[in-house]
Specification:
The chain has helices spanning about 10-20, 65-75, 95-100, 120-130, 145-150, 155-165, 180-200, 205-230, 230-235, 260-270, 285-295, 320-325, 365-375, 390-400, 420-425, 440-455, 485-490, 495-500, 530, 550-555, and strands at about 1-5, 25-30, 55, 85, 110, 135-140, 245-250, 275-280, 305, 330, 355-360, 380-385, 410, 435, 435-440, 475-480, 480-485, 510-515, 540-545. The chain has about 575 residues and is an alpha/beta fold.
Length: about 575
């Protein structure tokens, strides 16, 4: 692992030297290397045979242009690269995307956040050419992407399948439910597809352009399959977005682009493999899209950010809406003003597996929230900032009913504060953060976590002491305090989320591990304790060091959250 991020004076010559003389390096991070230039230091068509990079991060490199990305991928043997981070590279265009994908035949993850010049055609090349391997795609703030132009050609096909007698072809392979659920799913799918055709004035032009795109993708795929030596059977199998697991569409496209139906088509093409979806800032997503997504990915979907969604389900369809999300672990519905009345929103009780719930600036009622808190026994984080209809007293009362409720983070700013904060903290003694500020326990846990991490990796920056000499008893002199080996072992059997919480801070740096068995990678990780206990016997690999919180409780069943740590 070679991390050269934030090296502002690093240029292309030094990178080429490192790659040439480090044949065993598999991960290279060059993010925010503002002077990194490939064109002047990497010869065109040159290839380092000893380099076998699997992870390449060149995010926020402003000098890196289209030709530079092509040369870099060619030099590093693009067929081996599985993770490519190009976020913040604003000079990217569709031609450079096509040239890069031509060499990355095994690409699993690509991050194009902030690529303002990339259009739907470039995204389609990635989604179709890499349809058998692509598992993670980030299009955040790609304002040039028009998803209807890419996906409209599938809408007519879906409508015909749903209206035919053989309508089981429109159902996902892992669909669970009775005939009523099947009818509701097909009704939601047809409704959003009809809505997709109605909201666009030039449907015929968009459909024609989408069909032309698809024909071009097939032609390119056939051409590159010949170059790569793939068989015709392999080149023709699979569908666009077929293996996708993580999808980030936050703020994609411009405000005048209507996105109704796009998420439903992606979910249908994906056949229920999506685990994490981010729809932040998308106001034109329909509630039918969420229902279709939940129906297709009911067993896999664990994290959903649908904040800013304005299309609200009716009282009749809200039960189907939340029932399809019953297995989700982390949900963000900020700004979702659906709860008009004490009875609406009660369908949230279906979400019994929630670990994190964010309902900022919504009109949720007290009766609904108390019902949810009494049902969600595994909830660790609750955010109701700006919910003026709520009171702190009812949040405390929920603890009396649900004794197993163990909140680590609570944000109740700008609500009716009829119960003081000290009493809230006494009601929930496990709180690490209250109203976005660390509690006394949270401060102690973060310091202990940082000192423990510094001990394990051999650092001294986390241990304030006058003398840095080791004692014979295995302790480090810290004035009146000593950090011993036994003290560092106190965290060995506990998930780091009990110390860091579910938020990011400067003291939450830790070892990061991925798990191929549980598909926890591409920005998600598990801590050291979970890698040894919860994922024992799995295919676990090290990702290095970084800031963040453990995702074991979100994407798998964490066994390290049951006990309290003694600080």
């Amino acid at each position: 692992h070679l991390d050269l991020s934030r090296c502002r004076f690093l240029e292309g010559e030094g990178i080429r030297f490192c790659l040439k003389h480090m044949p065993n390096v598999k991960r290279v991070k060059l993010s925010s290397a503002t002077r990194f230039d490939v064109t002047n230091h990497f010869a065109e068509g040159a290839c380092l045979q000893t380099v076998k990079l699997e992870y390449l991060d060149v995010s926020e490199c402003p000098i890196l242009d289209n030709e530079g990305i092509k040369r870099l991928v060619t030099t590093c043997q693009g067929k081996v690269i599985r993770h490519l981070d190009l976020s913040g590279c604003s000079k990217l265009i569709d031609d450079s995307i096509a040239g890069t994908i031509a060499f990355c035949q095994n690409l699993e993850c690509i991050n194009l956040a902030g690529a303002v010049n990339v259009t739907s055609f470039g995204i389609g090349i990635i989604a179709y050419i890499c349809r058998r391997t692509l598992r993670c795609l980030s299009l955040r703030e790609c304002v040039g992407v028009d998803l209807p132009r890419l996906l409209m050609c599938h809408s007519d096909e879906l409508i015909d399948l749903a209206g035919s007698e053989d309508d089981h072809r429109v159902l996902p392979p892992n669909f669970e439910g009775d005939d009523n659920d099947r009818r509701l799913y097909i009704t939601a799918l047809c409704s959003v597809l009809v809505q997709m055709n109605r909201v666009h004035d030039n449907v015929a032009d968009i459909l024609h352009m989408s069909q032309r795109y698809m024909a071009s993708f097939k032609k390119l795929d056939k051409k590159w399959a010949t170059i790569w030596g793939s068989s015709e059977e392999r080149s023709s199998e699979g569908r666009m977005f077929g293996q996708l697991e993580n999808l980030d569409l936050g703020y994609v496209g411009t405000e005048d682009i209507r996105l109704e139906g796009c998420l439903s088509i992606i979910a249908w093409l994906n056949e229920g493999r999506l685990k994490q979806v981010d729809l932040e800032g998308l106001t034109t997503i329909s509630h039918f899209d969420i229902s279709v997504l939940g129906s297709t990915s009911r067993n896999n979907l664990q994290r959903l950010n649908a904040s800013s969604m304005t299309d609200l389900p009716s009282a009749h369809s809200s039960c189907f809406f939340f029932h399809n999300l019953k297995n989700i672990s982390e949900l963000d519905l900020s700004g979702y003003n659906h709860w008009d009345g004490d009875s609406k929103g009660v369908a949230l009780v279906f979400l019994a597996n929630l670990k994190s719930l964010k309902l900022d600036h919504t009109n949720i009622k007290e009766a609904v929230l108390v019902t949810v808190l009494t049902k969600c026994k595994q909830l660790l984080k609750l955010s109701v900032n700006g919910c003026t209809d709520l009171s702190s007293g009812r949040i405390c009362a929920a603890k009396l009913v649900n004794k197993d409720l163990r909140l680590l983070e609570l944000d109740c700013r700008h609500i009716k504060l009829d119960t003081p904060l000290w009493k809230i903290q006494k009601t929930y003694p496990s709180l690490l953060r209250l109203n976005n500020c660390c509690t006394e326990l949270g401060t102690k846990m973060l310091r202990a976590h940082h000192s423990n991490f510094s001990w394990r990796v051999g650092r001294r920056d986390g241990i304030k002491c006058k003398s840095k000499k080791r004692r014979r008893d295995g302790t480090v002199a810290t004035g009146s305090r000593h950090l011993s080996k036994e003290g560092s072992k106190s965290f060995a059997n506990y998930c780091s989320i009990l110390s860091t919480g579910l938020s990011y801070s400067k003291n939450c740096e830790q070892e990061m591990f991925g798990c191929k068995t549980c598909s926890i990678d591409f920005g998600n990780f598990v801590c050291l304790a979970c890698s040894k206990i919860c994922h024992k016997g799995h295919d676990v690999f090290s990702v290095g060091y970084g800031f963040g919180c453990c995702d074991c409780c979100i994407f798998s069943s964490c066994q390290c959250l049951d006990k309290d740590i003694e600080v």
